[in-house]
């Protein structure tokens, strides 16, 4: 689902400062530095970069094209394209938007069958890294 949405700078500046992560496309890294101009962004500020610059609000396979082209925002994203176990899947998703949609739909259906917590059994986190207070 990283095809849409955005990443707050606080979660990606470690790839830009003090030196740029060598797995990032240099031109893309400069764009990201423009979006996140300081290595210490205010965690409460809404300063971010979009997951996908070309089709930011369209659920499509551009995410996979981006990581093949070294334009993955998060390290975990970029690792999908470089790990021999996952590279074939990334390549297939990048090459075929219909295949991506089929697999995304399948994944959402599987997730919906995992008996999600309801009522007061769980919470929608304001920040996924922390339990709500």
UniProtKB/TrEMBL annotation:
Belongs to the peroxidase family. Keywords: Calcium, Disulfide bond, Heme, Iron, Metal-binding, Oxidoreductase, Peroxidase, Signal. Ca(2+) binds at residues 52, 55, 60. One of its GO terms (molecular function) is heme binding. Gene3D superfamilies: 1.10.520.10, Peroxidase, domain 2. PROSITE patterns: PEROXIDASE_4. One of its GO terms (biological process) is response to oxidative stress. Coiled coil: none annotated. This is peroxidase.
